[in-house]
Give the backbone structure.
Amino acid sequence: MKRQYIIGLMTVILLAGCADKKDAVPDIPPSDLYSQAHMELQTGDWASSIKKLEALDSRYPFGPYSDQVQLDLIYAYYKNGDYALTSATIARFTRLNPAHARTDWVLYMSGLTNMAQDSNFMHTLFGIDRSDRDPEPVKAAFVDFKRLLERYPNSDYAADARIRLLALKNRLAEYDLASADFYLRREAYIAAINRCQEIQKTYPDTKAAHDSLKIQLKAYKAINLEDGVNKTQELITLNKEK
């Protein structure tokens, strides 16, 4: 019985050793290793590419491929859905290369990564409204794309960044609208009015800004503030005429 146990244990160890060798990144020249990683990146084999790129980054942190390896890792992590690693690599690259020629792309990828963290596949699949969810990733993405447009208005990524900024602005406005509606239902009428007015000031050209007038009107009526009711009703009429 003891002999069988020892044989079984040795078999497990042997198999584990074989698996480690199979999964190990080969010790080959960095140029060859990068070529393999780049080829896997192009074919969408994110996991294999990441493994080799991480090995390059670990073995040759100051080598001739170091900048490109980090840029490739940003892309590979993002495509593989490893958003925390994407953000960490972006932060590291930006810290080490504040004036790099591809900073516009890094900002763009940072925006995409933050946007992705606001998404949820199951919510999207079933059409569940996410307007009341924490907008912190959206705010971060908004800052990324805004910074990209301010610093690099002629970037290849500027046009797409503008489109995404519009979508993000609507997302943030919808969040504030959901908050105003929450205050209204909790009978926190002054808080509801303040939030509605903030939406109208910050996001005047959004649907949420128009919808906020209805909440504002109900809140003013609830506290019997006639002047506020009249002014809000005038704004609602003006918006209908546009």
Notes: The mean pLDDT is 88. Residues 31-98 form a domain with the Serine Threonine Protein Phosphatase 5, Tetratricopeptide repeat fold (CATH 1.25.40). Residues 158-185 form the longest helix (28 residues). The chain is about 75% helix and 0% strand.
